[in-house]
Every structure is written in structure tokens, then in C-alpha cells.
Amino acid sequence: MIERYTLPEMGALWTDTYKLQTWLQVEIAVCEAQAELGNIPAEAVDEIKAKAKFDLARVLEIEKEVKHDVIAFLTNVNEYVGDAGRYIHLGMTSSDMLDTALSVQIVASLDVILTWVESLIQAIRYQAQQHRETVMIGRSHGIHAEPITFGFKLAGWLAEMMRHRDRLCRLSKEMAVGKISGAVGTYANIDPQIEALTCQKLGLQPDCASTQVISRDRHANFLNHLALLAASIERFAVEIRNLQRTDVLEVEEFFSKGQKGSSAMPHKRNPIRSERLTGIARMIRGYAMTGLENVALWHERDISHSSVERVMLPDACILTHFMLVETTDLVKNLLVYPDNMARNMNVYGGVVFSQRVMLTLVEKGLKREDAYAIVQSCAHTAWNQPEGNFRALIETNPQVTAALTADEIATCFDPNHHLRNLDQVYQRLGI
């Protein structure tokens, strides 16, 4: 991934150096397990642990010759270890080490992602609390519908992120698997107890039925979870973009001192962060699709997935982390304009209260079809007119006034009616 979207916390987990460190961690854990079962001398393991290291540049140099990254790595490690190195990688195939180490990387990445999911949850929760009673218009099809609060909108975001937290916690357990089962997964040249002990040392569980590799349905599921998380963030970002439009301007991304919006138009304050998040979500969805294509390998294994994962897995983790950090800051510093919300809600004299007027007329004995026709006629008369005033038309309509008093009509235009049950939602979420 390019440096622009690589933050140190996640980027450090996907460097070549960190990757080789996990490889060495796995190989040493296997050696320890071998010694515990009496298969290799304990003194040899002590020597391996004391001397084992690698030099990335040297590994790459060897790989140019042997055209095999694992052999290059093991060769370099043995240059440091010496004779005791003959006990490293006994009975193993490359994928034993590669896939187990990859699981260690993925679990570490999920730990970082979950930390930032929690940060975003808390940022949304705070804003939802702050705007619990900030009344705004709810929209369907992009058209004004009925009143809600901005806090209620954020409550929906909060619930969504809490579901992601639960999913990712379960996913972390699912991805915490290793395999030390040999060339085609049959344990022909290595004891299953070695796998069990190794995985225990690494905080993993043995894969229940591996081939030469851990089946890629797990990795596809991992990427799909990241894509779903990114899709939610995109939903939030698209909402901010829509609400920031000049003719709406109910919320706005924070615009820092010295920031510029356009090279040509000095007045511009563009929702660039939300647009960036929208674009990044598209990339992560693409990786999820590619992850699904990696599931179908030939027989017990081929390496068609390998080149893909070298790009896909680091990029997906790095981008997801970037999105979470960016979104958390965006939500924390979001500018909210309640006056604009009130202005927009009352456009055309409060046409958004049409359903309340209609239902009140029905309660007074009018047929629903008749009440609908009366209210629609008034609403459409006010609609898209500079001086359109739905409420005034209702208050002067003889069919309405014959059924409703002035106080009853006024009650129909009280936004609090639409908010009276929202406490139940807030309580469910602890807002």
C-alpha cells in the first residue's frame, strides 16, 4: 500500500521484517514442541533460540538465486545458527510456517482494527448523546419525509458499528488457527502433537482439517468482514456528503485553519475526507471479491493465491485501519448546524407533517381516502412554490376546519410527536 494511507500502527505489522519475524517465531515454536516431545535435543533448541536471526537483505539476495522465499529465509537463519539449524523445519512444508505465521499477522491486525472500531463507537456514541434532541428532517428517496433527530440518525450508525465489533471478535477467534501438518496435511512426517503444542505457544488453535494450506474460505471470510465494515463507513460518509451539500448544509466536515478547498474557487469547503472514504471502500470490496476467487485452489494446493495475498491482505488491513482512524476523527470534529436543520424541515410550511394531519382527520371520522386527497391537495399546492405554506392552507381549508379545531391542527405540526418513542432506541444502545 502507498504511504499516503499507511499509518504506522498497522503498517508495522505488514513489513517484510515483521513477516520474517513471525516466520522465525513459528519455526522456534515448532522446535520447542519437538524438544518437549523428545524428538530433538533441548540443548539444540536453546542454541537455536540464542542464535536464530535473519538479515532481510541477505534473504532477498539468496532468493534471487533459489527462487524460493522460504528456502532463502531458512538458509539465512542457518547461517547464524550453524549445526543446530538441522533441527529447524523438520517434517514441515513451507505452508506450515507460512499459513501459521499469516494467522499470527491477521490476528494482530484484527487487534488493531478492533481497537479503532471501539474508538469510532465511542465517538459516535458521544455525538449521539450531544444531538439526542437536535431535530432534523428524515428523508426517504432523498425527499423530505418526517422529523427525526440527528442523535437518532447517529444511533443507527452506533448500532451498526456495535454489530461490527461483535462480528470482528468472533472473526478473530476463527482466524486464530495454525497448521503444522506436513506436505498435504496428513501428518505423515510430523506428529499432530507438534501442531497442538506449537499452536498453543502462538495463541492459536490447530486447523481441524488442513490440506497443504489452511483453506482460503477463512481468508475470504476475513476480507468480506473488512468489506462489510468499509461499506458501513461508506454509508456514513455518503450521508455526510449529502448533508454537506450547499443547499442542505446540515452538517459539515471540520475545515481547519489554512485548509484550501479548491485551486480555482476560494469559497469551496469540500467533503474531501468523506469522498476519500467512499473511494477506499470500493478498493476493499474489490479485495473481498478477490478473496473469494482464492478459495478454489487445485487439489491440496497451488500457489495462485500466494501472489494475490502478498498485495491483498496488507492493503486490506492497512486501508481498513486508515478508514477507521479517519472516520473517528471526522465524527469527533463534525460540524452540526441545528438552525439549518430547522429551516430545512419547515420548508413549504411544514409539508412533512402531512401524515399527522391525515391521520387526525381519520380519527375525526373522515374516510382515509378522503383525508388523503384533502391533505395531498394542500401539500402539492404548497410544493415547490416560493411562498408555499402547507400549514396555512390546512388552517384555511373548510373541510379541515370543519373537522379539526385550531389547537388540534397546531398539534399536528408539533415535531415532538415524532420523537416520543425514540427513548426506547436510545436506551437499547445506552445513549
Textual characterization of the structure:
With 431 residues, the protein is mainly alpha-helical. It is built from 20 helices and six strands. It has two domains: 3-341, Up-down Bundle (Fumarase C, Chain A, domain 2), CATH 1.20.200; 346-429, Fumarase/aspartase (C-terminal domain) (Ribonucleotide Reductase Protein R1, domain 1, Orthogonal Bundle), CATH 1.10.40.30. Helices cover 64% and strands 5% of the residues. The strands form three sheets. Strands 1-2 form a two-stranded antiparallel sheet. A two-stranded parallel ribbon has the order 3-4. A hairpin with a 2-residue loop joins strand 1 and strand 2 (143-149).
The CATH H-level superfamily of the largest domain is Fumarase/aspartase (Central domain)
List unreliable stretches of 5+ residues.
none
Helix content: 55-70%
**CA gyration radius, whole angstroms:** 30 Å
Strand composition percent: under 5%
- Spell out the helices and strands N to C: HHHHHHEEHEHEHEHHEHHHHHHHHH
CA-based shape? elongated
Write down the oligomeric state.
single chain
CA-to-CA gap between the ends?
Answer: 37 Å
Spatial order of the strands in the main sheet?
A: 1-2
**Could you describe the largest sheet, including whether it forms a barrel?**
2 strands, antiparallel
CATH domain class of the largest domain: Mainly Alpha
Task: From the 3D structure, determine the CATH topology of the largest domain.
Answer: Fumarase C, Chain A, domain 2
